[in-house]
Amino acid sequence: MRLRFLGAAHTVTGSSYLLETNNHKILIDCGMFQGSRRIREMNYEEFQYNPAEIDCLLLTHAHVDHCGLIPKLCREGFRGPVYATKSTTELAMIMLPDSAHIQESDAELRNRKGQRSGAAPIKPLYTMEDASRALKYFSVVPYDAELDVTDNVRAVFRDAGHIMGSAIIEVYVTENDKTTKIVFSGDIGQPDQPIIKDPSIIKGADFVLMESTYGGRLHQIYDKEEALAEIINDTMDKGGNLIIPSFAVGRTQTLLYYFYKLWKAGRIDDVPIVVDSPLAIAATRIFLKNMQDFDDEAISLLNKNGTVPQMPQLKICETAAESKALNSSEGSAIILSASGMADAGRILHHLKHNLWRPESTILFVGYQAEGSLGRRLVDGMKRVRVMGEEIAVRANVMMLDGFSAHADERQLLDWLGHITEPKPAKVFIVHGESTAQTNLKDMIQKEYGLEAYIPYRGDSAELIGRACTIEESTIPTVSVEKDIEGELKSFDEDYRIMRRKLIQLVVKRPELLDTIVRTLDKGFKYVKKLFSAYNIQ
Length: 537
Hints:
- The chain is about 35% helix and about 20% strand.
- It has helices at about 35-40, 65, 70-75, 85-115, 130-135, 225-240, 250-265, 280-290, 295-305, 320-325, 345-355, 375-380, 410-415, 435-450, 480-510, 515-535, and strands at about 1-5, 15-20, 25-30, 55-60, 80-85, 140, 145-150, 155-160, 165-175, 180-185, 205-210, 240-245, 275, 315, 335, 360-365, 385, 390, 395-400, 425-430, 450-455, 460-465, 465-470.
- It is globular.
């Protein structure tokens, strides 16, 4: 059999893997690429296979970096079942139409701007109609039940503890009287997080595809409730707003759980709490319909109350008009809004109106991918462009890392350490930035002595029993290094043109020489400050 790595290779997003047996082609995840412009452009490339030839798709969970290209897949010929858990299926029913709405809106905006410059119109990546059609192919699979995928492939979905409905997928392939077990980790959650159960223990595997989002990093160990209460109370005392870019599925519900506990214990006042994300509102309703996926602590809380706990100060913003009104209202509030990486959606309006206010706080509670606005803010940028306008960053920008739905490096290693009957012949490290992947690979080899490989997009592995042969990709690599290289080449060309023009200017107006030199000197000093701030030698 052959396993092809088509996404989340040397990057965090775009998860997708193609498993080819003698008679069948099975896709595991079909995710959207997110982050910098160059990475997002990969969504518009042709698939590296014929979608009509794919027998079925196994979906780990409903985040768009794992499911966001399914409508495009169906539009281009896929007609097989999409196997997913009940909660994942229901979440996809809101996630994919929401993503389609964003694609249509972005295309409309770009076409309006392009019209003025005479640019050719572009089509959205996919439409609401495409998303609606794709949802008809979803087929529910219970946790821990064996699924006959094809005549020689079986699969079992185990709880990944990442978001509701998330799964680790065990795939068993039988060829030539030999059965090979491949484990697709999906995204592995932290143990002991609210609402969601802990990740399932996997007893053995021949090969493991393992996420590495937090490779090389450990989550901070601290009292998250105390830290959250302190930030809320400090911001309210200053008269500002607490703006939280929050992932609509998982993170918003976890924060509401914490807010309820803090309010019930009297550790925060009756401060208005606003959920300003139609997607998060719909996701919360789906959460409350699927309590079978809750952990014991959450079920105990619900049983104790006899119903879903209510906070009288909680406000739901259903319409865009209600959302905009928040930015002209007096008083302070906690506002949770999507997207979690601050790249799109209503959160941009709240950042535009609060980033420049010293009394406000912008709180990030999840992973921020390279190239995202959230990453730039967390990295300390003092001026950012939001909705076409340059905004000075005077608000207090904070990050509470422990709220992540991803396991950290130690938790990833502990999860892998349980896979012993048998131990993996090889671990493929996916879904991470290059540094995170390298760090995790080194630790896997050091602690367990296992073979580990970091695939590039387009790499493939020929698997026979427990033997593995790697064939390297011919697809051009997209990475941060290549991004900066491209930008510097462009800058180099601009510099040569500018240098020629500056010489011409000084010849005509020699009195401007001092002004030009001072201006250039300021630019170099700014770059040097950046190097110093990030300890770049």
